[in-house]
Specification:
mainly alpha; 9 helices; 76% helix; 0% strand; disordered N terminus; transmembrane; membrane; CDP-OH_P_trans
Length: 202
């Protein structure tokens, strides 16, 4: 029996049809991404911490808003989930580069964070496409432990806000240790997901 056979059928129509793409949540994602990237680029060009703070604020508030509207309006789609994942990377990469320009001492932890977020976390976040679930937020249907460690509210906060918070406080060694710990969790989670995929082919 494959892993797919053990999954409950929660939203067959939504799984079969990844769209529509023109939804309110996707509009929120587009707007918050454009604003956050523009603010982040301005912070990068001017080495302005205030603009960087504004970029992060727009990114985080907008990220919560698009998730809330998707659930509230019943417009959660697989296409929207992919768009959200890609947009998060755009916002984060620009803001992280601005952070290093403003404070070069953050170079090592920020570089490690970007490698973890852009590679390990991206692969994990897109893994939901291998199963009939709407988004990473529903990955508990596939594996509760991987979901808990990566997409539960606490895990999401630790993945970005925890690292950025320690950097903002000038705790560079602590930030690097956080990144290493998060990276270890991502590697373990990826290994578990790969095992699920391999067992699904048996």
């Amino acid at each position: 029996m494959s892993t797919h056979d053990t999954l409950p059928s929660t939203a067959p129509a939504a799984i079969a049809h990844p769209g529509p793409f023109l939804t309110v949540p996707n509009a929120v994602t587009l707007v918050r991404t454009l604003l956050a990237v523009v603010l982040g680029l301005a912070a990068l060009a001017r080495a302005d911490a205030g603009l960087l703070l504004a970029a992060y604020a727009v990114y985080w508030v907008g990220d919560m808003a698009d998730g809330w509207t998707s659930r509230r309006l019943g417009q959660e789609t697989r296409a929207g989930a992919v768009f959200d994942i890609i947009s998060d990377r755009a916002c984060t990469s620009v803001a992280a580069c601005a952070l290093v320009v403003i404070d070069p001492r953050a170079l090592v932890p920020v570089t490690a964070f970007l490698l973890s977020f852009m590679v390990l976390d991206t692969m994990l976040s897109l893994a939901f496409l291998c199963w009939p679930v709407l988004s990473p937020n529903h990955f508990h249907v596939v594996d509760p432990t991987v979901w808990l460690l990566n997409w539960s509210p606490a895990a999401k906060a630790a993945n970005t806000a925890g690292v950025i918070g320690t950097l903002a406080l000038g705790q560079y060694v602590v930030a690097l240790l956080c990144v290493v710990a998060i990276g270890a969790v991502k590697i373990w989670s990826l290994a578990r997901v790969i095992d699920l995929l391999d067992r699904g082919q048996e």
